[in-house]
Amino acid sequence: MKISTNNDLVILGGTFDPIHYGHLRAVEEVRQALKTAEVMLIPAGHPPHRKSPWAAAQHRLAMARIAVAHHPRFAVSDREVGREGPSYTVDTLRALRQERPDALLAMVIGMDAFLRFDTWRDWQQILELTHLIVTGRPGWPAAELPEALRQTLYQRRCDDIHQLHQQPAGFIFFQTITALEISATSIRSLLANGQSPRFLLPDEVLDYIESKGLYQSP
């Protein structure tokens, strides 16, 4: 199969507080598996499902841009950072779908987020706007799924990633990725304790963090 062209897009949203290699490697593996040409990272301005990020939105946006500056297939969008109110994913996807009405859209989320997916605003409509690529290790706790989400998964699960190219949205696909035990929480903890998180995130991002004094212990 040829690499997709036109407006097909792999999407990764998140707080990116800070962005690290776990984020970047996961979305790159999905991009390669799906054979799409473009990745869009979308830092959340005001995430509705968690407490306020540690770093201000402009810093998280800047770090994301720095992280992918030398990767021509990656772009960073400020659409959620610049939008007033909570950063609801469904609003972002509605806008993207208006811009790319016939494109394949594939949104990447982790397994932990998928297990709570039915708490997202208009979560069923999200699946009308994009495919869902759930990343993680082999095996997952299916018994923990709420009933409504279990039924949706039964209807929409796809086990052949090539089938995602048959329609622009609507499938749920599980993608096994390289296990990188990296978290933004652990990086912030290292920095707050005066230790270096080097090699867990791009050097240029760490340089930015240090230059701005981010994540330092109060």
Molecular structure report:
The protein is α/β, with parallel strands linked by helices and 218 residues long. 35% of the residues lie in helices and 15% in strands. It has 8 helices and 7 strands, in the order βαβαβαβααβαββαα. It has a 7-stranded parallel sheet, with helices on both faces. The radius of gyration is 17 Å and the shape is globular.
User: Treating each run of at least 4 consecutive H or I residues as one helix, how many helices?
Assistant: 8
Residue-averaged pLDDT: 91
Shape: globular
Biggest sheet architecture: 7 strands, parallel
Helical percentage: 25-40%
Structural class: alpha/beta
> How far is the N terminus from the C terminus?
53 Å
Order of helices and strands: EHEHEHEHHEHEEHH
The count of β-strands is: 7
Q: Give unreliable regions as ranges.
A: 1-5
Output the strand order for the largest sheet: 3-2-1-4-5-7-6
Over the alpha carbons, how many angstroms does the gyration radius reach?
Answer: 17 Å
List keywords for this structure.
single chain; 218 residues; alpha/beta; 7 strands; disordered N terminus
